[in-house]
Amino acid sequence: MILRAAIVAGAVGALLASSAAAAPGAPSGLEFVALAAMASALVSTVLPDHHVGLVTSMLIGVHWWLGVDDVATPWSMAAGAGLIAHHTALAAASLSPLGSTWSAPMRTRWLRRLLLVTAVAPPIWVGVWLLERTQVPASSPLVGAALLVLAVAVWWVRRRDAGEQPASGPNRRLAGPAS
Amino acid sequence: MKAGWTPTPAHFRAVAVVASFAVVAVLDRRPDLLVVAAPCLAVVVWTEWTRPARSPRIESVVDHPTLREGDTTTWRLVVDDASGRTEDVAVAFRAPDWVALEPAHVAELAGVGSRLPTELSVEVRPVRWGPHRLDPPLVVAAGAWNGHRHVWRSWHEARELLAMPHAPEFDAVASAAPPHGLVGVNRAPRPGAGSEFASIRPFQPGDRLRRIHWPRTLRSREMHVTSTWSDTDRHVVLLVDAFEDIGEPGGVDGAASSLDISVRAASAIAGHFTRTGDRISLVSMEAHRVRRLQPASGERHLRRVVRALAEIRPATTVDDRGTVPRGLRGAALVVMLSPLLSPGALDRVARIARDGTPMVVIDCLPPHVTASIDRRSAADLAWRLERLERDRRLEPLRAHGVPVMPWRGPGTLDPVLAKLSRRRPGVGRP
Prior knowledge:
Chain A is mainly α. Chain A has helices spanning 2-21, 30-46, 52-67, 75-93, 104-118, 121-134, 140-162, 169-175. Chain A is built from eight helices and no strands.
């Protein structure tokens, strides 16, 4: 139950941070995006092992993208923390059915790791803030290179996941026929 | 079930968020989106870095596959991963009918971390006798951040649990019916070469010299010998009528159906006669077959009898024609356990008694069977008519000396056994 609450709380936190960072003249319709994100967050509490959580994350991203003008706003770290809290709660909730007992070491491990990955945001924010102050001119080759790196990275991850190794020798006997 | 590690929706979500936020950040000059997506990027890198490569070794073990109903055993699941990258294991055990699991919740969760092999266990308690099939547990092993998942359910790992009937306390102090034969541990009603002292009597031709009672011989100046009762065994047949199962079974802690009473009583009676050294045979008339266990004695045979009782299946749709099964001839005592509702069962009793075989009928009709019937309904009326008809058909059997008694535990058979032990074989046929 705590995990289900954390799923919604994470999404709400990210949306609040996005709203706090939003410029006064933000385009209309942001409220609807926020409402849609909230609705999908609520649905994902019932279906944590589903792609509804991706819709919530994307809607939070859209809310941020449309509403925030200040690139160097420190609220981006709060939004990132909310987003990762939402993601982690979903991943943990999809591990087992509702009502399962989590041992104390498991809770500690997941919380410690959540804090660790949240701490990645501040150094990147500092880099963005410095980049914003230096006013680097636009560069098409740089954009192209960045997109290429991204494409290669995604392709590499997909290839690793697709190249699933079969069960090892003794386990194949235990695993039984595939269904 | 698919074997091997597969990426989860959580991993797909993290990758998709990072990729889409990064593309927009690059194309729209919005590096703030990279800050928002940075923790997700860390999760993706972490998940890929610690991605499990080999499937964990999973074994399911039931400590005691054969036990008494109401007893508890442990169902263990051992997960071992040589690579050490399995972090969390979730297991869903499914309880079949008449089996209780403790803890009762369906899933057990363990953080494995570096402590491998890890073991998850549930307490299994069969609450009713009979065979129970334990479906294999559903095991989900997860890597870091639940990014990759290994789902395991092997039907080779289904386990059979056989719950033996709980034998209630039973004892009989009266000697049973006159036995046949001249071997065994029971005192026969006739003198012979046994171990139990009978009397001191004058010497007769054929007496063994070691039987001479010297003190009496010297006092009386006439040769006297000690005589003994011959030792015999009895062949007791347990005839279980499984053509009907009347009443709602409630398990070992609840109400009993007629078959529950029959099986548990038969188990208790078999235990009693085994302790007294008698030979037991079992004839169970059940679904589409008549199962027979040849007469034998001893604890090992008792286990065979109890196992056979545990495997009885009621035959509620089979028409009982009242036939007498083979294997009753030569029995010192037939103990028939039946709810005695069908005319076929009553006919069977009459036929066995007519053959002159000493028999006891234990009425296994549960007293609570009408509890669920509305007093004013037609079903209640029909049930009362059925009971009247049953009593009417039982009356002539009782009048001809066939003892019919309800199962009451210890001492149930005492009055009948005492009466039968006084009767000479072949006397008292109805």
